[in-house]
Amino acid sequence: MARELLRDWFGLELSAVSLDQLGDTLAEAEAYRLLSRTVAERCASDAAALTDALQGATGAVVHRGVAGLCAVAAPIYGAAGVVGAAVATLARTADSEGELAALLCVTAEEARAVLERTAVLSEQDLLHAKDLVAQAARAASRLAASDPENAGQALASGRHPFLEMIGTAPAILEVTKLVEKVAKSHATALIHGESGTGKELVARAIHYHGPRAKKPFVVQNCSAFNDNLLESALFGHVRGAFTGAVKDQRGLFEAADGGTFFLDEVGDMSAALQVKLLRVLQEGTFTPVGGTKPIKVDVRVVAASHKDLSAMVSRREFREDLFYRLNVLKISLPPLRDRKSDIPLLVRHFLRKHQPANRTLPRMTPAAMAVLMAYPWPGNIRELEHEIERMLVLAGNTDELGPSLISTRIHGGGQAAAPLTVPLADLVRATISQAITAGLVRAAGDREALARDLGVSRPYLEAQCAQLGIDASR
Ligand SMILES: Nc1ncnc2c1ncn2[C@@H]1O[C@H](COP(=O)(O)OP(=O)(O)OP(=O)(O)O)[C@@H](O)[C@H]1O
Ligand SMILES: [Mg+2]
User: Fold this and answer.
1) Which of 8, 115, 203, 248 is buried most deeply by CB count within 10 Å?
2) Is residue 164 part of a domain?
3) Residue 346 and residue 321 share a domain
4) Are residues 290 and 180 in the same domain?
5) In percent, how much of the chain has pLDDT > 70?
6) Does ligand 1 lie within 6 Å of residue 175's CB atom?
């Protein structure tokens, strides 16, 4: 309830996080994310100050950070003291607008949009917000006390789904803005994007930010089953409809009543089922397999496809009328290769998501980052996520992730496949870093010899190593 009130009244987003996630939670808030790097680095010290303030606090504290940006936080207590915090991010005070706009690393127009989306709170608002955050923290403390085993998970699941949509590239900011608008409406939405670009993530965000958030969110992949099974899964069947139908079975459309139905890979639906779906969209009714009585439901449909449905329409593989029904609101997700500037943010996000809970966050070396930046990522964000997971497993207990941990496919693939989509500076860095790391192995760590091999001076080599984060002594 506190989360909803904070959102509706003040436009603040409440999360419950463990103490070590505090810095990242601040850093992820939009206005913070878009600050220039030097300013954003203050997040770490902001988080430290906030952590200090939370120790022993009974109610909520207001943290005033850079350019008047503030967060409201209250401690969550476990058996052993403060284990986490309820944090509402991110507001600003009215008089800091100019200062903040100047620090935002975006065009003037984008800065205006960010400012618009960042809540402006009066001192009175802040008092109310503090009350709500403190109440949420008390509820979370009770949860942590009654179930300490799962408290960590409970804290993590309190995170806000929009926070999971990482990215500040213009292409993705457009999408985030659109998703916010789409979420508030009731219309059917169609999400188009290559495999692994986040279609399901967007569908969930639409549901959980819309008026149906408390009702079910149901997912069915239309390419997973054969036609008969899919029809029965979607619409249910009556007893005796086919061999094995020993009793009436409710379909997923009924299960989704009042909520949202995410129809994934809708382009794979057969012509017969397309007709049935069209009827649900037009009249809100359908008939179970073998049934005679139509059933009425109130379901919002969000569909997704990696195929180009309009091209399928012109080839007569997809019904035109259904296409127009689905395509009321269209969201196109950019492939990762068109938003490479988001890779560092995504990497950090996945490092945190997949590191074992008891370990400190390992660091991606600049050399490894350069390799990741140079690759075209045909499998998009999902592929990147798997790669980071793999690197974490291979890294064991080391706290630095170097280029040697990256799959060979990615080392090789990037250069050959799409060098021109990469900023040249990144390409140069990646190439230099690969030459040095490979050379160090070959020269068995003899830097004098390596410098000679590479035709550079020893001090130049050292400087490059330092700059690229290559530990030449290893
Ligand atoms: N903007 C994003 N920020 C953070 N994580 C993301 C983002 N987009 C996608 N992901 C993550 O990438 C993975 C793939 O996303 P998702 O399953 O939504 O993609 P998809 O388009 O449905 O893929 P597929 O076509 O393979 O079904 C998920 O783990 C998701 O959480
Ligand atoms: Mg999917």
Assistant:
1) 203
2) no
3) no
4) yes
5) 90
6) no
Output the six-digit token pair for 92.
């600003």
Sheet holding 217-221, edge to edge: 217-221, 260-264, 300-305, 189-192, 329-332
Residues 109/102, Cβ–Cβ less than 8 Å: no
Predicted confidence at residue 3, as pLDDT, reads 79
Q: How do residues 310-358 score in pLDDT, each as one tens digit?
A: 999 999 999 999 999 999 999 999 999 999 888 988 998 888 788 876 6
Task: Judge contact between 365 and 428, C-beta under 8 A.
Answer: no
- Domain match, 289 and 318 both: yes
Whose CA is closest to 212, among 182, 242, 244, 176? 182
User: How many angstroms separate the first and last alpha carbons of the chain?
Assistant: 53
CB 322 within 8 A of CB 313: no
In three-state secondary structure terms, 61 is strand
- Looking at ligand 1, which atom is closest to the CA of residue 167? 1
Task: Count Cα atoms within 13 angstroms, Cβ side, for 422.
Answer: 25
Task: Supply the range of the domain harboring residue 56.
Answer: 2-159
Closest ligand 1 atom, residue 197 Cα: 21
Is this prediction's pTM over 0.70? no
Q: Ligand 2 is a single-atom ion; what residues have CB below 5 A from it? A: 200
Instruction: List the residue whose alpha carbon is closest to atom 10 of ligand 1.
Output: 198
Neighbours of 105 (CB within 10 A): 14
pLDDT at 277: 95
Phi, psi at 148, each rounded to 5°:
-60, -30
Distance 198 CA to ligand 2 centre (A): 7
Distance in angstroms (rounded) separating the CA atoms of residues 256 and 443: 63
pLDDT band at 72 (very low <50, low <70, confident <90, very high): very high
With beta carbons less than 8 A apart as the criterion, state whether 7 and 90 touch: no
Count, residues in the chain: 474
Q: Examine the domain organization and report whether 463 and 347 are in the same domain.
A: yes
- Answer yes or no: are the C-beta atoms of 377 and 338 closer than 8 Å: no
Atom of ligand 1 nearest to the CA of 201: 18
pLDDT at 101: 78
267 Cα to the center of ligand 2, angstroms: 13
Domain stop point among 283, 310, 332: 332
Q: Tell me which of 126, 159, 192 is where a domain ends.
A: 159
For residue 191, what is the enclosing H or E element?
A: strand 189-192
Give the pairing type, strands 81-92 and 119-120.
parallel
The model's confidence at residue 193, banded by pLDDT at 50, 70 and 90, is very high
Residues 70/71/72/75 CA torsion (nearest 10 deg): -140
> Are 430 and 455 in a shared domain?
yes
> Per the structure, how many domains does the chain have?
3
